Amino acid sequence: MPDVAITATGSFSPSQVLTNDELIERFGLDVDSDWIESRTGIKSRRWLGDGETTSDLAVGAARRILDERGVAPEELDRLILATISPDHPSPSTATIVARKLGARCAAFDLSAACAGFLYGLDLGAAAVRGGEEKVLVLAADARSRYVDTSDRRAVVLFADGAGGALLEPADRPGFLSIVCGAEGRERMGAYVPAGGASRPASADTVAGGEHHLVVDDRNEIFDLFVRFTRESCEAALARAGLSLDDVDVFLTHQGNSLMVRAALEDLGIPAEKAIDDVAERGNTSGATVPMALADARAAGRIRPGDKVLLTSVGAGYTFGAAVHVFG
Fold first, then answer.
1. Degrees (nearest 5) of the Cα angle 248, 308, 106?
2. Exposed site from 124, 170, 172, 320, fewest CB < 10 Å?
3. pLDDT recorded at residue 88
4. Which SS3 state, helix, strand or coil, does residue 256 take?
5. Cβ neighbour number for residue 305 with a 10 Å cutoff
6. Is 253 a residue of the active site?
7. Running DSSP on this structure, what letter comes out for residue 92?
8. In contact, 164 and 67? CB cutoff 8 Å
9. What distance in Å separates the CA atoms of residue 50 and residue 154, rounded to the nearest whole number?
10. What is the band of 123 on the pLDDT scale with cuts at 50, 70, 90?
11. Residue of 180, 253, 256, 324 with catalytic role
12. Are the beta carbons of 188 and 216 closer than 8 angstroms?
C-alpha cells in the first residue's frame, strides 16, 4: 500500500469579528474582558453573519486547499466533512459543499465532535491506501448558532471556522500513525438536548431553550481531556515507534489556552514545541486542529521534515491522535 501524506492545508473564518468587549456589550454579560481572557486565553472570535452557513465555511477552506495544490474540484475522489453543525439534519452538508465546489465524488459527513478531523484523517488515509488519489478532509463548525447568549461560559468560548487537508499517495512516509477511539459516557461533556430522535423539535423544546449547547462541569471536562489526550498520544507514538522527544511540533485541540497548557504539563512537552492560536480564534470545535495546522504551516512554524503530533478530544467522548512528517 502507498504511503499517504498531507499535501496541502487551508483554513477559513467568517468576516464578523467579536472582541471580548464587543461581546460583553452586545449580550450584556456580567464579566469584563480580563475575566474572559484569564479563563480562556481568548481575546476575540469569529462568528457567522446573517445568511452564512457551515457549508460556506467548508467551501472557503476547500478552495484555499485546492488552490495551494493546484487541484481542480473535479479531480477529487472523496470529500469527508467532519461537523456537528450541519446546514440541515439531512442530507449531509458534504454534498452541499461538493455542489458549491463543482465536485462530483463520494461526499459524506462524519460526527465525532472536536475529534472529527482526526477521524476524517483516519478514513481519508485508508481511502488513499485503497487506491484513491485525492481525498479532501474538512472540518467545519458554526457553534455560534447553538450558544445561549445568556450563558457566559458558552458565549465567550465558542466560535465558527473551517479547516482541512488534502491527502494524496506519497513516495515518502507522511502519516506514521493514526489512532482513534471513543469512550461513551452518560455525561457527554457538551451536547444539544433537543432536535434529535430522542427529543424531536417542538414548541416546548424551543420555548425551553433545549436547542442550545449545554456544557458539563469544567473540571470534569479538563480531567478527561488530559487523560484522553495522553492515551491517544501514547498510542500514536507507540504505533509510529517514536517517543515524545522525537516530536518537533505538538498540536492539540484548541479548546482554550488553559486546556492546551494542561495537556503540555501532563505530557511534559515544552511550550515552544506547541501551537496555541486560541487568542484570535476561540473554540471552533472540530475545526480547531486543521485551522491551527494550516496557519502554522503558513507562518513557517512547521518546516520540512518536522514530525507533528496532532491530537484532539471531543464530546461523547471521542479522541484521536496522528503523527505526520511534513515534506
1. 170
2. 172
3. 96
4. coil
5. 9
6. yes
7. -
8. no
9. 20
10. very high
11. 253
12. yes
Question: Pick the catalytic residue: 20, 105, 180, 283?
Answer: 283
The tens digit of pLDDT for each residue in 222-241 reads 999 999 999 999 999 999 99
Judge contact between 33 and 24, C-beta under 8 A: yes
Of the residues 114, 233, 256, 324, which is catalytic? 114
CA–centroid distance for 318 within its chain: 12
Q: Are 78 and 97 in contact (CB under 8 A)?
A: no
Residue 320 CA to residue 221 CA, distance in Å, equals 16
For the chain, first and last CA: distance in Å? Answer: 19
Would you tell me how many other CB atoms lie within 10 Å of the CB of residue 70?
8
What is the rounded distance in angstroms from the CA atom of residue 200 to the CA atom of residue 194? 6
The C-alpha atoms of residue 51 and residue 19 are separated, in whole angstroms, by 21
pTM of the model: 0.96
Whole-angstrom Cα distance, residue 317 to residue 181? Answer: 9
Which grid cell is 11? 483554513
204 grid coordinates: 416546548
Quote the distance between the C-alpha of residue 189 and its chain's center.
16
Sheet of strand 175-182: strand arrangement? 175-182, 318-325, 307-314, 249-251
Q: Percentage of the chain surpassing pLDDT 70?
A: 100
